[in-house]
Design goal:
Layout lengths: L1 H33 L4 H5 L10 H6 L6 H32 L4 H16 L2 H15 L5 H25 L3 H9 L4 H12 L1 H17 L2 H6 L8 H6 L9 H21 L1 H8 L7
Length: 278
């Protein structure tokens, strides 16, 4: 009876999981299929499926800005991840292990909690004026800087939680053996939280890759814009190129999917860090 009861209890759970998977997978599969269809076939009420690469050829045709926008997004994402990992790891280590005074930690934690709650649109005017004064409008460096500002609080707090899970005895033993604080950080503590760094990197990469508002307001479009802005520009006042939008969406999804597959084991290990207490 226990086995039957367990089986009966699991059927609704399995059905719910299958429904959730279908809700997620069907739109992705449908969009991918539309990427290989001409626009006339997409808007045609009659079903006419045929494999066609014209949407991808038009996106990557010479003179089109899509390839530049794709490279812009790659550079923005890589730069944001590197800065968030470097600064976030140092900040998380300091907050977790160095016991800074409260007049430093309290404002830092309040600011880290406040920035994610503020709608980004309210920050755009001030950021636009500041980027203009620094000469960083329409530049990759400016977009990297702004994406770092928006994602750094999350990265720092998450890294602090991973450093909290490292026993203090390891750091103290390294210091007793004559290692400096910097050496103890790089050689002893940081390798232990490598799975957490992978988790922070993938989440930061997703946020930077999918960011739209900053790219829209801080660039003039065209070859200076990131990929998300380029996809939105395919919606014209008198025409919507559905096939090219689907093809661009398929191309945009590939890097994040590949990154998630490569870092899957590290992400799972990072997310479960601290779940089991010794």
């Amino acid at each position: 009876m226990r086995g039957e009861d367990g089986r009966r209890a699991s059927v609704p759970v399995e059905a719910a999981l299958l429904a959730a998977i279908a809700i997620i997978v069907i739109p992705i599969a449908w969009g991918t299929m539309l990427a290989f269809q001409p626009n006339r076939a997409i808007v045609n009420p009659d079903w006419d499926f045929s494999m066609w690469l014209g949407n991808f050829e038009s996106l990557f045709a010479p003179g089109e800005p899509f390839l530049n926008q794709l490279l812009n997004s790659v550079l923005i994402t890589v730069g944001t991840v590197v800065l968030c990992l470097v600064i976030g790891s140092a900040a998380g280590y300091a907050l977790s292990k160095l016991n800074p005074p409260r007049w430093i930690t309290l404002p830092a934690l309040v600011l880290a909690a406040f920035i994610p709650m503020v709608p980004p649109m309210t920050l755009v005017p001030g950021m636009y004026l500041q980027m203009g004064a620094l000469g960083l409008l329409n530049t990759i460096g400016g977009l990297v800087l702004l994406n770092t500002v928006l994602n750094l609080p999350f990265a720092a707090l998450l890294m602090k939680s991973y450093f909290d899970g490292v026993p203090d005895e390891l750091r103290e033993a390294a210091l007793v053996d004559g290692a400096s604080e910097v050496r103890a950080f790089f050689r002893v503590v940081l390798p232990i939280v490598r799975p957490g760094m992978a988790a922070v990197a993938i989440f930061t990469a997703i946020m930077a890759w999918n960011e739209f508002l900053i790219g829209l307001t801080m660039t003039a479009g065209g070859r200076t814009a990131p990929l998300t802005v380029g996809i939105a520009s395919l919606v014209q006042p008198y025409e919507v190129t559905w096939g090219q939008m689907a093809a661009a969406g398929a191309v945009a999804a590939v890097p994040i999917i590949v990154l998630a597959i490569i870092a899957n084991r590290q992400i799972v290990a990072g997310l479960t860090t601290g779940a089991v207490k010794g």
